[in-house]
Structure formats: structure tokens, C-alpha cells
Amino acid sequence: MKNHKIILANFRCFSLQHTLDSGQFFRYEKTGDWYHCKERDKTFKIRQKGNNLEFEGADEKYVRKLFGLNCDYYKIIRELSKDKKLIPAIRKYRGLRIMQRDPWETLISFQCSIFSNIKKIKLNMNLLAKEFGEDFAGKLNDLQKIKNCATGFRAKYLYQANKMVDDKYFEKLRKMNYSQAKKELMKLPGVGEKVADCVCLFSLGKMEAFPVDVWMQRMMTKYYKKEKLKDIQKFAQQKWKHPGYAQQFLFHWGRHDYTR
């Protein structure tokens, strides 16, 4: 990490804060205005100054992909804004992007998310990195050590999945359509609909995915009168051209504003 790099492109519609704080990414800490991020073999820091990004320890290609900077964001926002119920969330959290993370670490993250919360997921991920090394994907081969990382009943899922997948597995999933990829993921231990959808959305580029957890059930019940999982998912596919982005705005909005 020798030189700072500044992306001079005018990212008027990008918010580093909203994106990192929206429950997609877990191994980061903020010091001053710098976010110190870790994923697999990458350790880098990044900050936003106005419409510019300054970062160190990663190249531009990686940063653009990770933070979802290659999509036609204006088009997505125009489409979502046709739904008047989404406008308050879009206005408040404008610049929120869907990240494209490493699928290995994404899987581990969301296996840890089962009956958990963001603070606990961060703890689990940091403890796993301390126990198994920073790039611990594929190395979770000791069940007791996994349990020592405060993973509880989830430990067995991490241990078993570790023996079943590798990078080639995820490359095969990338080539599948959304339904096929989700079906394959749900064959893994501890991977239900929500975890599979999170992996599809946040690491495999399947923007049709619509993860549903307790926050999303509350939001979909409150604003769209949909309560059951199947009804919610069917509605999402029919309602929005970009279901994944609609979900992320609703999720972030719900976590911060639902009780207010």
C-alpha cells in the first residue's frame, strides 16, 4: 500500500457510507474518514471526499466491481422511483449501491447471519480471520476452532460447506441463471432461501434476487400488504425491474427508520 489513488470520475450518486453500512459487507472498521476493509487476500482503505474516492491497497478495477460502480445507477433509480412508496428511501439513502463481493466470503458471512444481527456477524467474521488467517475461505477445517469463534450452531454449517465448495463451484454458479444458482446454493448446509438470495445478489450478480429476513417481512407487510415469503418474492419479481436494488433500499430504510 504505497500510493493513494483517486478516482476523479464524478460519482454524484455513490455513498460509501450507505453502501458499507447496509448489511452487505462485514469486515471493515472506520477510523476518522477512512474505512479499513478486508476481504479474502485484500486489505485496503478507502474514503469519499465529495464525489471522489480515494483508496489505497486495491486497484481501480477491484474497487469499481466491489462497490457496484459499473452499473447504470441513474437508470435503476429512475425505474425504482416509479414506485412512490420507495421514494423516501431512495432520497434518504441515495448513492446506496449493491456490492459485488467475493462469493466464498459472502457465503460464510451469511451463514453466520442465521438468527443473528450485523454486529454479531462482524464479530464472527473477525474472530474467524484471527483464528484461521485473513484469507480463511476454504480453510475452515477445524470444527472446534470454528465454534471458538462464537458461531454457535452455525459452526457445523461452516465446517460442512467448507468441504463442499471452492472457487470453481462459484464460477459455475455465475454461469447459471438466478433460479438455477439459488437452487444449487440451497443444497449446502445452513443455506435457506435468504442466505442463497444474499449470495446471489451480493456476489454473483443476480440482481433478481430478493433476500427476505425479518426486516423485509416487516417492510413488505407495512407498505405492500405482503406477509408470506412466496407472496413477497412473487410480488417483487412482478413489481420491480431491479428487485435486488428495491430490496436493499427497503432493508436499509427499515433497519434505520421502521421504529421511528
Report what the structure shows:
With 260 residues, the protein is α+β, with helices and mostly antiparallel strands. It has 3 domains: 5-70, TATA-Binding Protein (2-Layer Sandwich); 72-96 and 207-260, no CATH class; 103-203, Endonuclease III, domain 1. Helix content is 50%, strand content 10%. It contains 14 helices and 5 strands. It has a 5-stranded antiparallel β-sheet with strand order 1-5-4-3-2, with no helix packed on it. The relative contact order is 0.12. The model has no long low-confidence stretch (mean pLDDT 94).
DSSP summary: helix tally: 14
| Number of DSSP-assigned strands | 5
Mean pLDDT: 94
Would you tell me the structural class of the helices and strands? alpha+beta
Instruction: Domain count, please report it.
Output: 3
Spatial strand sequence of the major β-sheet = 1-5-4-3-2
What is the CATH topology descriptor of the largest domain? Endonuclease III, domain 1
Q: Strand portion, in percent? A: 5-15%
- The separation of the N and C termini measures 42 Å
The ordered H/E elements are EHEEEEHHHHHHHHHHHHH
Nutshell version of this structure?
The chain is α+β, with helices and mostly antiparallel strands. The chain has helices at residues 16-20, 60-66, 73-80, 87-92, 103-111, 118-132, 143-147, 155-164, 167-175, 178-185, 193-203, 214-224, 229-239, 243-257; strands spanning 5-7, 28-31, 34-39, 42-49, 52-56. The mean pLDDT is 94.
